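User: Hey, my collaborator sent me this sequence without any context and asked if I could get a structure. I don't really work with proteins. Can you help?
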Amino acid sequence: MRWMLLANVAAIIPCAGQGKRMGSKVSKPYIDIGGRPLITYTLDVFQNHPYIDTIIMVVRKEELEYCRENIVNKYSFTKVKAVVTGGKERQDSISLGISLLDKETEWVVVHDGVRPLITKEILARALEKAWKKGSAVVGVPVKDTIKKVNDDLSVSETPERKTLWQVQTPQIFRKDTLLRAYEQASLNNWQVTDDASLVEKLGEKVYMVEGEYTNIKVTTPEDIFFVKEMIRMTK
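Assistant: No problem. I've predicted the 3D structure and written it out in structure-token form, which is a compact way to encode the shape of the chain:
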């Protein structure tokens, strides 16, 4: 797959969420995991992956200098091109990251900074699918039966489980497609929870890539215990 190395790929890593459900004084990306901040495990995968050329981190304003000095410089993440302040919502933060992409960038990988258990194998599979199909979104089939409910919590529908996937990141798109999606989002005031939803609104097909159930987004204290154990097991 040497031809993949010829493409210019940038990763946008949003780390600007407040993480209110965590109940911690330390923001989620900087919580200590095995003697290192959580975000460093995420960045390791992108720093060391041969298909990733540059990284843009989007962080909270009050953590800007801390991230530059105590994450990027301290751990020598040389692929990090920029560390910038995020917007009010995740969507705003990704839009800021897109605005900083080089004109040479052909593909954009968006990955949550607080998904530290992403593996190089998942990333490679997703990149390959994106190059073949034009997009790739990592996810896993749902294990449980899902119910759609009304406002009064009565069940209105039980979708076929085989058609349902739990969406994760990374999500990968051609730069021009993602840029067009965000331009239309701004014009039409689209508010969504992931980048794939914006691309879908353009009428573009988005393709799933099966990832791993361990690729969780750290949201609660229980998630921290899980991540710590998973990292301990791999050492």
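In plain terms: The first helix runs from residue 38 to 47. You can pass these tokens on to your collaborator as they are.
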